[in-house]
């Protein structure tokens, strides 16, 4: 066997394994391996594809977002795709990314004003809300990024999803964010599960994801879910910067992920290093810091690659295994 067929074989094997774990995680809310184990498989595939770009195929998990929508739900097509994020594992990766952003913006007259926004990366489930004339009309999961599940009634049970917006929002507005469960609420919920003789849930992310993707909204209503918004899909055009869009969402009465603005990548790196040390001081599960170019014009100039925007990157923390009890996962209870 030649080295070429070996590599091809390994790539196919990795793709098959990753597809299997994607299904367990995104579709069934029941992962079998830790995020660190998954990330190691994904990282190996990404590295092999990087060395052999001729072997990259459109159906590779490195080119596709999330998992397919679950049968049983109506499907929602996202007018603005819900993408994933490129990852930075080390602070050096942030500096490399900054250099790439500057290179791509090249002649941009505004390059002097390049600013970055940092936000905590919440480990929950991405959803898109839709408001028409200020009224909540639909809610959807990210699904495969293009088509998600219609979970309108389930999201309506969350207090942080208002029925009506205040302060004259655009006719169509799609706030996007993460549904999650605060750690104290998760512990209380699991305590009640155990007291009732039921098995506890593995971690807040799985409980949140499983709770949103319930066919009966009454079950969702019993779960201690909340939501932070961190962006806008359709209706986001009028805002000149990401930070002004977040301020506007707050003004409309939505719960917005706190953010900071930086005028250098050094400031961003400091912020990431701080949170890597203090992640457990936050009352909910976070797995990194998301860094975004603030200017919408610069975002547009940078564009996207297959599954992630070029104008954002997630600095991922080292994995924390303590809260994951993978052998005790419950599916769709
Ligand atoms: P991602 O989680 O690395 O990044 C994209 C997501 O970040 C967005 O969709 C959004 O939901 C979320 N996010 C949180 N806070 C945000 C903020 N402030 N701004 C913007 N987005 C924010 O990418 P992904 O493709 O959703 O998931 C990949 C990760 O999921 C892997 O690295 C792995 O850790 C985990 N995973 C684990 C398994 C497993 O079997 N254990 C399987 C598949 C995926």
UniProtKB/TrEMBL annotation:
Chain residues that bind NAD(+): 35-39, 84-85, 119, 142, 178, 292, 316
Gene Ontology biological process terms from the UniProt entry: DNA repair; DNA replication
Coiled-coil spans in chain: none
GO molecular function: DNA binding; DNA ligase (NAD+) activity; metal ion binding
The keyword Lipoprotein appears for this protein: no
Transport among keywords: no
One GO CC term, this protein: cytosol
Residue positions of the active site: 121
Keywords of the record: DNA damage, DNA repair, DNA replication, Ligase, Magnesium, Manganese, Metal-binding, NAD, Zinc
Family in the record: Belongs to the NAD-dependent DNA ligase family. LigA subfamily.
Free-text function comment from the UniProt entry: DNA ligase that catalyzes the formation of phosphodiester linkages between 5'-phosphoryl and 3'-hydroxyl groups in double-stranded DNA using NAD as a coenzyme and as the energy source for the reaction. It is essential for DNA replication and repair of damaged DNA.
Stated name of the protein: DNA ligase
Species this chain originates from: Rubrobacter marinus
Recorded name of the encoding gene: ligA
């Amino acid at each position: 066997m030649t080295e070429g067929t070996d590599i091809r074989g390994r790539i196919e094997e990795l793709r098959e394994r990753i597809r299997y774990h994607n299904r367990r995680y995104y579709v069934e809310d029941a992962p079998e391996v830790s995020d660190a184990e998954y990330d190691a498989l994904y990282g190996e595939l990404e590295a092999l594809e990087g060395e052999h770009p001729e072997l990259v195929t459109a159906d590779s998990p490195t080119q596709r977002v999330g998992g397919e929508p679950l049968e049983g739900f109506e499907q929602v097509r996202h007018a603005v795709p819900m993408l994933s994020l490129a990852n930075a594992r080390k602070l050096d990766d942030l500096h490399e990314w900054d250099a790439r952003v500057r290179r791509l913006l090249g002649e941009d007259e505004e390059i002097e004003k390049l600013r970055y926004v940092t936000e905590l990366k919440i480990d929950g489930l991405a959803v898109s809300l839709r408001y028409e004339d200020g009224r909540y009309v639909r809610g959807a999961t990210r699904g495969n990024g293009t088509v998600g599940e219609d979970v309108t009634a389930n999201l309506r049970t969350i207090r942080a999803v208002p029925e009506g917006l205040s302060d004259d929002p655009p006719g169509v507005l799609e706030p996007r964010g993460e549904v999650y469960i605060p750690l104290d609420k998760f512990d209380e919920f699991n305590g009640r599960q155990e007291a009732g003789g039921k098995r506890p849930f593995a971690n807040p992310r799985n409980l949140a994801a499983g709770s949103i993707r319930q066919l009966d909204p009454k079950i969702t209503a019993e779960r201690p879910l909340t939501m932070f918004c961190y962006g806008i899909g359709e209706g986001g055009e009028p805002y000149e910067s990401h930070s002004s869009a977040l301020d506007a969402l707050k003004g409309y009465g939505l719960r917005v992920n706190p953010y900071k603005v930086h005028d250098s990548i050094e400031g961003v790196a400091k912020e990431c290093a701080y949170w890597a040390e203090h992640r457990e001081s936050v009352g909910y599960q976070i797995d990194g810091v998301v860094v975004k170019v603030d200017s919408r014009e610069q975002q547009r100039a940078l564009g996207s690659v297959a599954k992630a925007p070029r104008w954002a990157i997630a600095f991922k923390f080292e994995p924390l295994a303590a809260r994951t009890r993978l052998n005790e996962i419950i599916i769709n209870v």
